[in-house]
């Protein structure tokens, strides 16, 4: 009788342990998110930086403990750690992560208030730096935000026409403004978007364009 | 394929030829085809009937087993009830009637005392001496003028008056004593009255319990006999119990979900928000485990208190061990409730922190958040965190009813399902048989032309045969009026042959 009752207690417990054990022994699934945001600071686009702040704050509010977030500027030579304005990997504990978010926001505010326009626009260099950062962090989901008009303007001597690997990386171009020349010939704008899309998608990435900044719900997965 | 089917240039003619050929083939294969169709229908119907019979047997076995289990459960429940009633009677007897000899002695003593007091109270008080007339006579003596006589008389009168006063005092003293005795009897009467009332209450309780036991025993006997009425009553009771237990457990699940919401968020502060087991957050699993442990503790508490009997091994424990288990499970439950209250507080702190961060990110002033009323939600959450584990403890009671009645309800459902399958199989069997019959008629309809021709030829053969028979009979009877008569009768027969219906 006693043995039977013990078996009644032990069997479900053992089953639960076995299920949890089997579930835990498989390939670990990464649930964290890595976001790298490139801010175009070239020429008149610097005026748009206020909108970028809105996106940064929204992104901060959506990120969870364990996620990584970095912001870098696009200037003459963007393939450099020096261009990273702020970066953070949020702590496991939600309270500590909240503190980190507030510090991050302060760093961004400081940058916005002191940003100077750059002479050239090295978007490809910034993307390379973003890929390097995200590959190093190796999150479950990699996302690159490009806050730019996507008009690349390289200084003479800078080589950027080589293939990059965007495997499983979401690249989101935001606030892609139209230039004066685009208004003269809209095909330039469309060709610019198509070129970047082809470049990303041929390298295994996913390309999206969000120009309506009031609808940021689809920016990051829930 | 089309060229193969086209026997002539005209498609209509080809179709007609094919129809004729098909009809001829079907006509010649008619009897074999009919036998095959009927054999197949019979076979399928037989198989379906066999399956139905098998399912019927299974259903009957299940019903019998269900009945046995139901009766066993009912018997056990009644035994428990009767046992509980006996325990109550024992408690009543222990409390009120175990001291009956003592009570009886008390009553006897009290009655004896009352009797004695009554005896004492009935004693005659000392009478006033009968000197009053002498005193009066002395007082009425006429020679009062004589000082000697007057002096003597006055002395006698004074002595008599004193004696009278003493007698009155003695009388009053005796009366007072009697009244004292009578008033001493009052509490004794009250004692007797309350003792008798207590005894009456105990006896009434015992009588009531005994009536209850009688009723339970009648039902128990009926269950032991296995009567249909008992089974029906137990079944209805089980269904009602199952419904109520399910409802209460659904409410408890709601409580558990609220409890989970209260502690899941702060759990991530303790075990980290990035750890996962499979696709589930470790914090969520930890919160769930805490709730499950609380429910287990509640279950053990109820078992140890003998309110539920899910684990016979616990109720069979020695009294001391059982009481230890009560205190241990209650202690653990209280500790866990305290932990939950702490987590609920932490949840509120985290929420406020997140709100402040969100406000800062939106560019709002975090100090604008209403901090004056925050303590209300914090206190409410802490209160819920502490109370809910104890409230969930009582889930053990509906859980016991649910488990006990679940088997019967599932048995009834399976029986209903088997009944449905059985009826379906029987219907299907009959449908197959009837379909076979219909198929025969359809077959005949497809070859209606050869059948019609066959009918025509058969009737002609029959007519010829009748004529031959008539002629044979006429020649056997000899010449005369016979042939005419025979011919008439043959005509009549022919008419009947033509319209057999």
Explain this structure.
Chain A is of the alpha/beta class and 222 residues long. Chain A has a single domain, classed as Rossmann fold, CATH 3.40.50.410. Chain A has 6 helices and 6 strands; from the N terminus they run αβαββααββααβ. Chain A has helices at residues 2-25, 49-62, 94-114, 123-137, 180-184, 186-202; strands at 33-40, 68-74, 84-89, 141-147, 169-174, 206-210. Chain A has a 6-stranded mixed beta sheet with strand order 3-2-1-4-5-6, with helices on both faces. The longest helix of chain A is centred in the first third of the chain and has 24 residues, at 2-25. Chain A is globular. With 501 residues, chain B is mainly alpha-helical. Chain B has 4 domains: 8-98 and 419-446; 99-214; 228-394, no CATH class; 459-501. Chain B is built from 14 helices and 2 strands. Chain B has helices spanning 2-5, 11-28, 30-97, 100-121, 132-140, 147-225, 228-271, 282-304, 312-315, 319-361, 374-393, 396-446, 448-477, 482-498, and strands at residues 276-277, 280-281. Chain B has a two-stranded antiparallel sheet. Chains A and B meet through helix 1, helix 2 and helix 3 of A and helix 7, strand 1 and helix 10 of B.
């Amino acid at each position: 009788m006693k043995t039977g009752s013990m078996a009644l207690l032990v069997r479900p417990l053992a089953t639960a342990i076995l299920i949890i054990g089997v579930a835990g022994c498989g390939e670990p699934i990464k649930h964290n998110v890595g976001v790298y945001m490139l801010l175009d600071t070239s020429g008149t686009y610097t005026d748009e930086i206020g909108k970028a702040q809105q996106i940064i704050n929204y992104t901060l509010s959506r990120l969870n403990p364990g996620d990584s977030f970095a912001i870098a500027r696009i200037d003459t030579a963007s393939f450099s750690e020096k261009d990273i304005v702020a970066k953070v990997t949020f702590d496991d504990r939600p309270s500590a992560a909240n503190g980190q978010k507030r510090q991050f926001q302060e760093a961004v505010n400081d940058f916005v208030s002191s940003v100077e326009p750059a002479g050239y626009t090295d978007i490809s260099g910034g993307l390379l730096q973003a890929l390097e950062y995200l590959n190093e962090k190796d999150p479950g989901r990699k996302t690159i935000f490009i806050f730019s008009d996507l008009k690349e303007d390289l200084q003479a001597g800078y080589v950027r026409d080589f293939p990059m690997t965007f495997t499983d990386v979401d690249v989101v171009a935001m606030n892609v403004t139209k230039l004066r020349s685009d208004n003269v010939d809209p095909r330039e704008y469309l060709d610019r978007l198509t070129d970047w899309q082809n470049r990303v998608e041929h390298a295994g990435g996913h390309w999206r364009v969000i120009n309506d900044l009031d609808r940021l719900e689809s920016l990051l997965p829930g | 394929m089309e060229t193969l089917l086209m026997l002539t240039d005209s498609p209509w003619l080809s179709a007609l030829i094919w129809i004729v050929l098909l009809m001829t083939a079907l006509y010649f294969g008619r009897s074999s085809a009919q036998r095959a169709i009927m054999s197949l229908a019979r076979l399928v119907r037989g198989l379906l009937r066999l399956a139905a019979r098998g399912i019927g047997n299974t259903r009957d076995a299940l019903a019998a087993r269900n009945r046995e289990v139901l009766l066993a459960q009912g018997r056990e429940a009644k035994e428990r009830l009767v046992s509980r009633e006996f325990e109550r009677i024992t408690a009543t007897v222990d409390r009120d009637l175990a001291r009956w000899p003592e009570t009886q002695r008390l009553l006897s003593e009290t009655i004896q005392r009352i009797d004695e007091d009554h005896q004492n109270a009935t004693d005659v008080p000392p009478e006033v001496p009968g000197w009053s007339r002498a005193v009066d006579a002395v007082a009425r003596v006429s020679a009062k003028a004589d000082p000697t006589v007057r002096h003597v008389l006055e002395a006698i009168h004074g002595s008599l008056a004193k004696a009278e006063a003493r007698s009155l005092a003695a009388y009053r003293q005796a009366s007072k004593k009697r009244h004292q005795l009578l008033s001493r009897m009052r509490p004794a009467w009250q004692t007797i009255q309350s003792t008798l009332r207590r005894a009456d209450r105990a006896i009434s309780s015992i009588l009531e319990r005994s009536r209850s036991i009688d009723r339970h025993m009648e039902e128990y006997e009926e269950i032991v006999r296995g009567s249909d009425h008992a089974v029906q009553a137990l079944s209805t009771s089980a269904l009602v119990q199952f419904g109520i237990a399910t409802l209460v457990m659904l409410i408890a699940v709601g409580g558990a979900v609220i409890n989970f919401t209260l502690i899941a968020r702060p759990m991530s502060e303790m075990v980290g928000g990035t750890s996962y087991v499979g696709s589930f957050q470790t914090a969520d699993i930890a919160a769930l485990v805490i709730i499950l442990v609380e429910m287990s503790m509640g279950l053990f508490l109820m078992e140890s208190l003998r309110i539920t009997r899910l684990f016979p091994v616990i109720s069979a424990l020695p009294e001391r061990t059982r009481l230890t288990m009560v205190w241990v499970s209650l202690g653990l439950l209280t500790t866990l409730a305290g932990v939950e209250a702490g987590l609920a507080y932490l949840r509120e702190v985290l929420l406020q922190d997140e709100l402040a961060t969100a406000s800062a990110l939106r560019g709002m002033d975090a100090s604008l958040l209403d901090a004056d009323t925050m303590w209300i939600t914090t206190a409410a959450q802490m209160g819920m965190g502490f109370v809910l584990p104890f409230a969930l403890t009582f889930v053990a009671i509906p859980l016991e009813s649910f488990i006990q009645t679940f088997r019967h309800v599932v048995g009834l459902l399976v029986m209903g399902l088997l009944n449905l399958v059985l009826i379906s199989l029987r219907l299907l069997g009959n449908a197959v048989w009837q379909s076979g019959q219909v198929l025969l008629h359809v077959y005949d309809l497809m070859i209606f032309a050869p059948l019609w021709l066959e009918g025509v030829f058969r009737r002609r053969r029959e007519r010829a045969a009748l004529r031959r028979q008539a002629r044979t009979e006429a020649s056997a009877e000899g010449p005369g009026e016979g042939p005419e008569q025979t011919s008439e009768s043959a005509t009549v027969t022919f008419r009947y042959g033509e319209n057999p219906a």
